Backbone:
């Protein structure tokens, strides 16, 4: 395949015309009757169109060269301008293997690599977040040292940045040390992922600081720092570092069903192209609004053959509780990273809660 | 003022409870009954709530320290997670002057500075884009040399990146040279703004290359490279360079009226915080979907007193034609940058079209 193939749902009036206009808007951005002949090589085309009731479906082929081997530019062409139009929604994506390779070759570890470096063969993997924002590094470290008795991944809440209460560097040093100490006592391989966003000119420096401190993974927010920042992080971090993507500031694309990008494509192939090893998304049944069907679709899109890339590991979160593990494994399968939040804090004893979570994950069928 | 004050429209059921949950979600992200006492310093609060019919309105105050002096983190707290929920929409924003200063102090030139460096006192300013994608640098340069007879700003189409047909560096060199030659002949001060997105690790390098080539301005896409990349660009570029922001990949926030960010706030205060001197948005009456009222609101939000920052210059575009100048000036006022696209190409003679556009702008009342 040498074309980028994108499928869109089209709503509203004159759907066929909207699809044709989309193909021009997202490639030439000049009516084709005004475009000089040599420029035709860059033009996208509607290659199939299927009428429906609620929406019609258009498949558009873009020349691979339009992306210029750059992830940011691929996104510009897939949905950049038409993201501003209600009634157009990106719902499927295929890209040539050559393009996926040019933008970095996908998740460095992927789902299988995450299991390998964490040393967990079969059970669902377990993660939680350090919060609330406002605690000091010593408090967060104390929390992490307890959580590391049961969790595989302890990540910063996305609300933790470089606030005066818990500056980035001090937090990273204290929490990595705390997790290391618990691991030495427990024989486990829990990991801490600092949230790295912050000023553009400090992004690489924070990544390197986290890796040097022994963080072995990071939490990134492509909605805030750009999808290409995730790809870049994969080029900076050590080989066995895990890249976890967080959906903060991405919801504009998914909160309505009539525009934007389907959550399946956004949290599946687009995140795999951006080189995320594991991808957080709001699970059905929590305080956010994805359906069970969408969540199952995200899991499928994270695993299906796509441009020769590794599978990413789905990390459903939001309103999750220990007693839902069975239900969640039924929905996502065992190859999942379950992100649990406030429920862990309810028992009062964080270490006991973390161990109970682990026990539940080890025994779930 | 020492708080960040954000106003949200709340739709759906249990609106008051949604507002309270939002304040916790976007600050602590842990139910307050589980949060240790010292963390209360980071908690946001609903400070007013007004019931309505279509929606209720909640004003939420966040402690300034939550942003940690970082633009990316401010966005995480304003709308990061709740962007994933339909029924919550950010519609007004105030931030303390100290925070606005900490994130760079707003547009380096702003609307007044743009007029100063372009040497245009009173009339509407004029811009267009080099397109279609697929042309070679020599073709684009030839196009620019004609357009520079009438336009103030000739920007790359956002679809131009580093494609094989027109690699970034060659394009920037050829087009800046062409515009410089026309300026020498015309006595005008037309400027060329290359589109800079591309790989994260090349972002600064491309900015510097553009400035060294004499580009005097850039086109940036915060939706693609992150809002903080725009702020960063302002720290790298020469003092009189103009930063133009493009709305590509931002439409998820604005395409529906029931979630995300109102276009007035997104293209107004948020872009000013990101240090954009001029902000492109889809004008009413074109092929995108903003209303006249929203467009007027964007213009107001780009000019109103906000955290001690310069005004940005609204740059409405999309489906614009020369014969609409009067109507557009009536809508936006004269302090506007009119972005015209394919209509300039309709006449066949680009220089004549550009001169006619200038003539129309000079005579509009």
Residues:
């Amino acid at each position: 395949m040498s074309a980028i193939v994108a499928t869109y749902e089209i709503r509203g009036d004159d759907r066929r015309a909207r699809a044709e206009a989309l193909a021009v808007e997202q490639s030439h951005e000049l009516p084709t009757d005004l475009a000089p002949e040599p420029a035709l090589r860059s033009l996208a085309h509607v290659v199939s169109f299927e009428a429906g009731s609620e929406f019609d479906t258009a498949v558009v082929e873009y020349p691979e060269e339009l992306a210029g081997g750059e992830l940011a530019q691929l996104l510009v062409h897939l949905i950049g301008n038409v993201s501003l139009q209600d009634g157009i929604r990106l719902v499927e994506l295929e890209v040539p293997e050559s393009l996926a390779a040019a933008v970095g070759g996908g998740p460095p570890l992927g789902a299988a690599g995450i299991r390998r470096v964490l040393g967990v063969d079969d059970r669902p993997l377990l993660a939680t977040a350090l919060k609330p924002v406002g605690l000091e590094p010593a408090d967060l470290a104390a929390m992490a040292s307890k959580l590391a008795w049961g969790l595989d991944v302890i990540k910063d809440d996305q609300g933790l940045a470089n606030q005066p209460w818990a500056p980035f560097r001090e937090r990273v040093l204290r929490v990595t040390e705390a997790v290391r100490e618990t691991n030495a006592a427990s024989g486990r391989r829990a990991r801490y992922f600092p949230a790295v966003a912050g000023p553009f000119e400090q992004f690489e420096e924070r990544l390197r600081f986290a890796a040097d401190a022994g963080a072995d993974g990071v939490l990134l927010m492509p909605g805030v720092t750009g999808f290409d920042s995730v790809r870049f992080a994969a080029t900076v971090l050590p080989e066995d570092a895990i890249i976890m993507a967080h959906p903060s500031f991405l919801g504009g694309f998914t909160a309505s069903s009539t525009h934007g990008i389907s959550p399946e494509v956004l949290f599946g192939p687009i995140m795999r192209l951006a080189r995320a090893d594991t991808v957080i998304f709001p699970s059905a049944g929590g305080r956010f609004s994805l359906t069970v069907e969408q969540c199952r679709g995200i899991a499928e899109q994270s695993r299906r053959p796509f441009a020769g890339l590794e599978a990413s590991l789905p990390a459903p979160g939001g309103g999750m509780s220990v007693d839902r593990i069975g239900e969640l494994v039924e929905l996502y399968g065992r190859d999942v990273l379950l992100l649990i939040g406030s429920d862990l804090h309810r028992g009062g004893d964080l270490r006991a809660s973390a161990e109970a979570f682990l026990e539940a994950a080890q025994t779930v069928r």
Remarks:
- Chain A is about 40% helix and 20% strand.
- The longest strand of chain A covers residues 3-10.
- Chain A has a mean pLDDT of 95.
- The two ends of chain A are 40 Å apart (CA to CA).
